[in-house]
Prior knowledge:
The chain is an alpha+beta fold.
Amino acid sequence: MKWQHFDIVRKELEGKLLWLEDAEDLASAKARIQELASFWPGEFDVMDQQTHQTLAKVIGTSDTQSSTS
């Protein structure tokens, strides 16, 4: 069985990443970034801890939410 965990990060100024938490499965991680974007403006990504690839992204704004993934 392959071990896989996911990091949930928020993009900050100048492209820096702010690590928020981790998740054990991709579905939970995607749901969490949707939740975060609903009340916190900014870009939230789900990243594979081993490959550092971005697997999902949500951009939350102060008045609306848009999702790209």
